[in-house]
């Protein structure tokens, strides 16, 4: 099982009203939630660790996880409110305003974390859940506790506007990256993490020097490249009509993890000697499923039956 650890929230998506103007429609979301849903739709055994409310929105989140084949056994339920993210779409790109104070997700502590079963082979972390305490510290502690025997992947999916204590966030994220096996960053994330005018190749090498065996850099329409061992492998982004980019990176992550899982490579030993062909398969699957997601509105990843694999 791949266990996705992080935020489950409700995206408030703008919709046009018949008489003019806009309203906001609620949709289940969150970067880590989106990745869990995408993995479930791809037929990978998946669960989720998150603080989820017992309110109406929280029940919607749990229900959608179950409907998409994601186990809810590891959720921590509470009566606190669900995090809301107002989505602003401009020129096909999305920005967000978060309403997160004292929410069920943000208030998660390490004491709320479940004991993990032997079926859990990999942990995935990311998104805004790594920014705000106490949840961010709880996820960091879970990673530190479990990393010795389980593959760890992180996508920080950095939202600078959500970060209020940058020094604390950078320190925590550096520790987590140093304890991970795989890190996925966009080219913009990489520039935020490692400032300066150096090339992506130099910055990716510096990121690998912090600990991860594999660093994946996505570049939007220019595709993605993985750096590992003494090699690098890249894939082009499939040509598609872009409706919006909501959930694109989250879906890519699911495809990449599913691709490694296809080849039996979600273990510490396998990742240490992973081949170019395996990485190419994982990157290609990630790019393929992300292309489907951007071709339709919102975070709506494909089912296994929709793609060739």
UniProtKB/TrEMBL annotation:
Signal peptide span: none
The Carbohydrate kinase PfkB domain, residue ranges: 2-302
4Fe-4S as UniProt keyword: no
Gene Ontology molecular-function annotations: ATP binding; kinase activity
UniProt keyword list: ATP-binding, Kinase, Nucleotide-binding, Transferase
Stated family: Belongs to the carbohydrate kinase PfkB family.
Entry protein name: Carbohydrate kinase
Species annotation: Sulfitobacter sediminilitoris
